[in-house]
Design brief:
152 residues, alpha+beta, 2 domains, three-stranded antiparallel sheet, 4 helices, 38% helix, 27% strand, Chromo domain-containing protein, Chromo-like_dom_sf, Chromo/chromo_shadow_dom, Chromo_domain
Amino acid sequence: MDPPDVPPTESGCNDDVLSILDHRLDASGEANVAWFHVQTTQPTTYAWRHETDMWVDKKEMVLAYWKGFDGGRDGQLGVDPSNGPWLPARILNERPKRKKRYQIEWVGYDEDTWEPADTLALHHQHLIDQWVQRLAEQGALQQIAEEVAVQG
């Protein structure tokens, strides 16, 4: 079955994905990413899933898929390995020293990098907002755990 010229905009839970069969370039955003044609757990059921959605819970499958191509992900999607553009997935950590830097996980790559906070804020403020929210939630959970331990 040949994928359509323009993949449908389908995303969602990827627990049912068994394998990635093929891909199509999605150059509609700030960075080149892929639509994956996937086989699901339903017999003879195939679907299109976006790389950014697959990255969340099928990271190892995505990395293994790209390693199967000469030139890897960069070669297949036309990404310049030294200049990008790349799409950040999430912030993993921060260094609050003199100039704040964030450790970034990138969609489609297994290596993280440390990026200046001001650069990230310029193009991806939503990631900083998500990071701050996660830290706040972790702090609240820690406070609850400490209160329970004191009461215990």
